[in-house]
Design goal:
360 residues; alpha/beta; Isopropylmalate Dehydrogenase; 10-stranded mixed beta sheet; globular; binds nicotinamide-adenine-dinucleotide
Length: 360
């Protein structure tokens, strides 16, 4: 019995989470899995109900679960609240409360959606990569940080890019283990020609790599990686990188696919502890409540939860196959609509995916 916490949040969140709940039921039936799903308050919805974006009961429920499935939080209604009370604080609270140090973002081009990319077909065809980004260290957290004024009254802005070798080791393990579930190639991205912190990064990743002789390890400078991602993205399987570089490269990689409504992500902590699985997109308030949101990123987040969080790769494969077959049928939500396809709403897309799972 897997305890799953569902966090619908705001905007299109409740709509796409309703689809996710049906997909979970279908997968449970098909693979004889048992999910105990509990829905909890998060984001603006939680602010409205209890005055806090991440109520302690929600965090506790998540900490005692096997996995957390989040939709999205945020919206104009809460934008003027003080920053510690804004919906996005819930994301930071979940990351720190669940000690999530690894962010995994796949960028996979589905053949049916190849023309949604802004890049040429021959460049993006067959792209299937993941970015493994360190999430709780590096320049966003290193000390000292701040804006300081010297004795001449001149201000100086400071951030510090620092990594403990233990932080590098644990994210490297995640990347190598992720590669073992895929094509067994890790490209570690750093700036070791300039930065000492990157020199340590490269040294430790190389050392950890020796524990994974079946995985091929290469290294690349971050500026070259940014270029290679648009020049020849097919060369990558797993990109392993630090917090700042990963923030930028994962957005670049995501745009290869051209469609934000299709992209899931996973944030993982220590082995055996609950991970957080969510779409890359936000709460899309502009289309909320209209039954036109694309639920596929949310559905593919369940596949990531099954693969990376619950070690149920067959069930994960089935969800991904069902999504692909529904796209083969020509069904499209508005954001991925193409000539000759059938436009469907959020719920109808969900029903089509559920029907496919049952018929596999
Ligand atoms: P967004 O991702 O919500 O929307 C960007 C654009 O993509 C919009 O036009 C939207 O309609 C479209 N879009 C997004 N998801 C879609 C889907 N599933 N189907 C169809 N179209 C989709 O980003 P934004 O507009 O910058 O932010 C809106 C709110 O979401 C803000 O409050 C922001 O802070 C919040 N946000 C939350 C998260 C999160 O919860 N992880 C992430 C990003 C933004």
């Amino acid at each position: 019995m897997y305890r799953i916490v569902l966090l619908p949040g705001d905007g299109i969140g409740p709509e796409i989470m309703a689809v996710a709940a049906k997909v979970l039921t279908a997968v449970a039936d098909k693979f004889e899995l048992a999910f105990d799903c509990q829905t909890a308050l998060v984001g603006g919805a939680a602010i409205d109900a209890v005055g806090h974006p991440l109520p302690p009961e929600t965090l506790e429920l998540c900490q005692n679960s096997h996995a957390v499935l989040l939709a999205a939080v945020g919206g104009e209604k809460w934008d003027n609240l003080p920053s510690h009370l804004r919906p996005e604080q819930a994301l930071l609270g979940l990351r720190s409360g669940l000690k999530l140090f690894a962010n995994i973002r796949p960028a996979k081009i589905l053949p049916q959606l190849i023309d949604a990319s802004t890049l040429k077909r021959e460049v993006v065809e067959g792209v299937d990569l993941v970015v493994v980004r360190e999430l709780t260290g590096g320049i966003y957290f290193g000390q000292p940080k701040g804006i300081f004024t010297d004795s001449n009254g001149v201000r100086r802005g400071v951030n510090t890019m620092a990594y403990l070798e233990t932080e590098i080791d644990r994210i490297a393990h995640v990347a190598f283990q992720t590669a073992r579930l895929r094509r067994k190639q890790v490209c570690s991205v750093d700036k070791s020609n300039v930065l000492e912190v990157s020199q340590l990064w490269r040294e430790r990743v190389t050392a950890i790599g020796q524990q994974y002789p079946d995985v091929t390890l290469t290294h690349m400078y971050v500026d070259n990686c940014a270029m290679q991602l648009v020049r020849n993205p097919r060369q990558f399987d797993v990109i392993l990188t630090a917090n700042l570089f990963g923030d930028i490269l994962s957005d670049e990689a995501a745009m290869l696919t051209g469609s934000i409504g299709m992209l899931p992500s996973a944030s993982l902590g220590e082995a055996g502890k609950p991970g957080l699985f969510e779409p890359v997109h936000g709460s899309a308030p502009d289309i909320a409540g209209k039954d036109i949101a694309n639920p596929i990123a949310q559905v593919l987040s369940i596949a990531m939860m099954l693969r990376y969080g619950l070690q149920q790769p067959q069930a994960a494969d089935a969800i991904e196959l069902a999504v692909s077959l529904v796209l083969d049928q020509g069904k499209r939500t508005g954001d991925i609509m193409a000539p000759g396809c059938e436009r469907v709403g959020c719920q109808a897309m969900g029903e089509a995916i559920v029907a496919q799972i049952h018929s596999l």
